[in-house]
Structure formats: C-alpha cells, structure tokens
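Action item from last week, closing it out:
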Amino acid sequence: MIVVVTTDDARRDGVIRLDDRDNFAELAVDAVGLSREAVTAVAVSTGAGAVDGDHLWIDVDFLRGRGRGTDEWNAALAAMVDYAAGKGWTDSGSGRVRAHIRWK
C-alpha cells in the first residue's frame, strides 16, 4: 500500500490517504515535492505517526482506520505488520510500523 501525503498551502494543513490499499506486499510513503518539515507536520496533525530520517513510523491503527474494515483486510494488514516485525520494522511500544518515504 502507498501512504500518500499531500498539503494544501491555502488552508495550511495536510491530508494522508491510502492508495493501492489492497497491496500488502509493499508499504511506502509518497511525499514527492514535500519537505521533511511538511511531512512531519502532516503526520503529527493527522495522528499518523512520526518522521525519522527517510522513514515514517506510521501507527497501525491509523492504517486500519483507512482500510476496508473487513475481517479479511484487517487480517492481511496484521500479516503485513507481522512480516515487518520479523524484519525489525515495527515498534511494538508505539504500535507503529516503518515505511520508507519517497521524496522524489
């Protein structure tokens, strides 16, 4: 799935949405054209998570809340998070999973 971060300079806020939300083989953040500060601000204001270098530590419940809401979808998300945990890409204390940010 692709986490897309967008901003609206006129309103001075941002939005995060999921694209390709049924693709559980990939988790990446599309922040093309945005600064690290802008992505950080949107992540904090939406409650999505926290930026650390070139990664967004995104809250699993945030992802779940933007999914299909079906048992099947939630199970696939859980399997993706379990895989990420096996690679060291999760923080069980915060309930977050690491996603690489694509800046360009």
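Closing note: The CA atoms of residues 7 and 38 lie 8 Å apart.
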